[in-house]
Design brief:
homodimer, about 350 residues, alpha/beta, 434 Repressor (Amino-terminal Domain), Rossmann fold, 3 domains, six-stranded parallel beta sheet, six-stranded mixed beta sheet, 12 strands, elongated, DNA-binding
DNA sequence: TTGTAGGCGTTATCAA
DNA sequence: TTGATAACGCCTACAA
């Protein structure tokens, strides 16, 4: 039974348009969805009515009817961590291009918020979910929700394929390896690692890359030069102090915020970078070039990270049912000043 | 007529639960929504069925039926501009606390994307919209959409109350005034303004604050020391070069990204901060303290900006129908090193 | 090519 | 306190 006529304070519905154009809702629907089966005269009448009533399809109703929302959920730890905005832009760009929208949630790497976010996304019936999980384990309840939900998940920055079938990660082994090699190339011999939290999927790879980089350079691996942080600036500071007390001459720091803390600790201790110790930092930002010294970094392709994740998700949505896919994104070493490395060696007199 | 029994691949509906618990959908709905009118025995049966079937209410259907989504739309120029994440967090926090979610869109300060974003939010039937608009004018079509939509809008960083009834902005007059005064206090006499784009709502206030600051200090206002940018780093660089060629000894730069460009330009020109020119930068970040010199800034309360905006919106949603409200957030001067100002004057021998 | 009517999963109004 | 049943706005077989 058709709805009532458009009341003054409410948005026009497809029925209002149909009545105004003296056609059926079917015809209106056909016009709105760009079907070709409509006679020009009818089409014009409908379009005129749409303009007149300022009709705008109700996406809620459409989603309910079609059983798909064309919306992708995305859970990130914290949008105010400067790492994530570009990941989100990458995801958004890829999603938009295929007619999908992004519904974003912050989890603060907190089990409960994570669970709430997931609950919300599932209740809103998103078509698939990008789950960015840097550290901490999965609450069993959350793991179960993922398993029981019938929609595809793509894990980001976490390669625990027991959680989801597909994942896209940075190649942490490679990043640590490259960083370590560069520190060695810059003449460093007592190299420390300021890593992420322990027991994380990428922690092992990073440690291994660090280890192998030292070995390949003929240096020995000393576990007491390995320090664990949690990617936050304060921790970079406190752990950085302990770390610097061991007098390393090189540090690989596994994210930018921790590097900020590390440099603050160094300053308080009267240590200069790169003179007293060199630094390679994971992940780069356009505004870093006003830092002195300019940071030598291993950049992860953040934008691409988001893009690829969406691509995997859309493949599943398009029906791909093959085995799980793990994409590793290659990091890129960007040599600047914080290691004191020069491609062209300075004259011997000026060498350190 | 009740729906079919739960098919294997689909989520359980309220009907499935009702059948499983041998009650009506009404009772299930009452339990789900925490009504008190349900007999304990019925309630238990329903809850057991919910657990068994992993039932989760479909928010699409609920929104359609209740004609409200409990979702607020938010349009920001660019999430990867480090200014906005904290604004978003503030808005999100306030929204969550009142049972609302945020649906985020990037406009890239681009008329078409802005229009698309608005269209999407309206089609998704959000209950209200936070519209962050730093610069550029409103396309007539967009202005019309806002006017015709029956939902409340709150404008952010833009006080054009012809667009929306309520708005929350930073006090740009005050920020510019304070910054200018501080530059003068630091002994600067040839002070330049690196502002935002022209013809923007806050442009005039900023210019006036700058002007009044000079006047109050007995300095004369020279229009050729006023430069216009667009809040991007590249522009800070190019405009910064022109600006520095006029040999100012102080610059008020109206956002962080432009300051980055400005400092890069200065470096290329062999100019040192704060020795050759002092700088006050609008808007502060926790990781700025590893910059040398540490930037003296006028911070805008970003988190609070988002919070207050949501508060205004929720007031409208709660039925407030009074006159429009314009909230101005007071900036906060944070004195550090980039002006060369010392609270405790150094011995005369060391003075500049 | 166009129209009719039933379904999507809720809430809400009336009866019972 | 509970239960049928009609909205909510759209899509889509199936019929005409």
């Amino acid at each position: 039974m058709p709805n009532k006529p458009a009341s003054p304070g409410k948005a026009a519905s497809i029925y209002d348009v149909a009545k105004e154009a003296r056609v059926s809702v079917f015809t209106v629907s056909a016009v709105v969805n760009g079907k070709t089966h409509v006679t020009p005269r009818f089409r014009e009448r409908v379009e005129a009515a749409i303009r007149k009533l300022h009709y705008r399809p109700n996406l809620l109703a459409r989603s309910l009817a079609k059983q798909e929302t064309h919306t992708l959920g995305m859970i990130v730890p914290d949008i105010s961590n400067p790492f994530f905005p570009m990941v989100i832009r990458g995801a958004e760009e890829a999603a938009q291009r295929h007619g999908y929208n992004l519904l974003l949630c912050n989890s603060d790497d907190n089990q409960e918020k994570e669970s709430n976010a997931l609950e919300l996304l599932l209740a809103k019936r998103v078509d698939g979910i990008l789950f960015t999980k840097v550290f901490s384990d999965l609450k069993p309840a959350v793991a179960r929700m993922i398993r029981e939900s019938k929609i595809p998940f793509v894990l980001m920055l976490n390669n625990n394929l027991k959680i989801a079938r597909d994942a896209v990660v940075a190649d942490d082994y490679r990043a640590a390896y490259e960083a370590t090699m560069h520190l060695v190339r810059s003449g460093r011999k007592r190299i420390a690692l300021l890593g992420g939290p322990p027991k994380v999927s990428n922690g092992e790879a990073r440690l291994q890359g660090f280890h192998d980089g030292l070995k390949a350079s003929g240096l020995s691996f000393d576990p007491s030069f390995v320090f664990e942080g949690d990617y936050r600036s304060e921790t970079g500071y406190t752990v950085g102090k302990r770390l610097l007390q061991r007098w390393p001459d090189g540090v690989y720091s596994a994210n930018f915020l921790m590097t900020v803390g590390l440099l603050r600790a160094a300053q308080e201790m009267g240590l200069a970078c790169p003179d007293d110790f060199g630094t390679v930092n994971l992940d780069d930002y356009p505004w870093l070039d006003i830092l002195r010294p300019k940071l030598t970094t291993v950049e992860l392709p953040k934008f691409q990270l988001g893009q690829e994740a969406v691509r995997l998700l859309l493949d599943r949505l398009a029906g791909y049912a093959g085995p799980g896919i793990l994409k590793k994104l290659l990091p890129e070493l960007r040599i600047r000043e914080s290691c004191g490395f020069q491609l062209r060696r300075p004259p011997a007199s000026a060498r350190r």
